[in-house]
Design a protein that fits this description.
Distance between the termini of chain A: 37 Å
Largest sheet of chain A: 7 strands, mixed
Helix content of chain B: under 10%
Radius of gyration of chain B: 14 Å
Strand content of chain B: over 45%
Order of helices and strands of chain A: EEEEEEEEEEE
Structural class of chain B: mainly beta
Distance between the termini of chain B: 41 Å
Number of strands of chain A: 11
Oligomer: heterodimer
Helix content of chain A: under 10%
Shape of chain B: globular
Number of strands of chain B: 12
Strand content of chain A: over 45%
Chain lengths: 114, 113
């Protein structure tokens, strides 16, 4: 069974460029989460979707960040324009609505903005 | 709202030492409790869980008991190995009522040979 798949694994870009991170959740999972992890702030929830609908985006830092989930098997997190302070590891996770809410994480996308 | 507080560390132990990482929670309902582990360069993965009071979750020699009276879910292992070096996160979930998993700050464990 494939787990949560994220791409790219590593991205290095210059300040001002657009960055798009992608996530494929586990098939059959109804909820999808985007997290950001940094040394300074730890693990932060950015946004989560339930049945493709954004439920809570209060963690999205500012208007430069946007997330979409056009269908049950794909989500994107976009940063435009990117800034050096956006450098972090971005994790996608998914879970089933049935059960205890256990999250399954992808391996993360490490973003470096120069 | 619901929240989790865990011992932040870092924690450094010698191989075969006893490990305890404290975790307490605040919740209005009856959440499920989790410990996740993150090895270097990887995403978080579930280590163990407990879904109701007095349940004990266990995996890979790690244990944690859901204590409602003390609102705690402390992680323990009797004899740690170098391979246990990782960051450990305590978390709670009110799913299916609320799918938002609440994580603690994480505790970095380093085990030295």
């Amino acid at each position: 069974d494939a787990g949560v798949i994220q791409s790219p694994r590593h991205e290095v870009t210059e300040m001002g460029q657009e960055v798009t991170l992608r996530c494929k959740p586990i098939s059959g999972h109804n909820s999808l989460f985007w997290y950001r992890q940094t040394m300074m702030r730890g693990l932060e929830l950015l946004i989560y979707f339930n049945n493709n609908v954004p439920i809570d985006d209060s963690g999205m830092p500012e208007d430069r960040f946007s997330a979409k989930m056009p269908n049950a098997s794909f989500s994107t997190l976009k940063i435009q324009p990117s800034e050096p302070r956006d450098s972090a590891v971005y994790f996608c996770a998914s879970s089933s609505n049935v059960g205890t809410g256990e999250l399954f994480f992808g391996e993360g996308s490490r973003l470096t903005v120069l | 709202g619901d929240s989790v507080t865990q011992m932040e560390g870092p924690v450094t132990l010698s191989e075969e030492a006893f490990l305890t990482i404290n975790c307490t929670y605040t919740a209005t309902g009856y959440p499920s409790l989790f410990w996740y582990v993150q090895y270097p360069g990887e995403g978080l993965q579930l280590l163990l869980k407990a879904t109701k009071a007095d349940d004990k979750g266990s995996n890979k020699g790690f244990e944690a008991t859901y204590r409602k009276e003390t609102t705690s879910f402390h992680l323990e292992k009797g004899s740690v190995q170098v391979s246990d070096s990782a960051v450990y996160f305590c978390a709670l979930s009110d799913a299916p009522a609320d799918n938002d998993m609440r994580f603690g700050a994480g505790t970095r464990l380093t085990v030295k040979p």
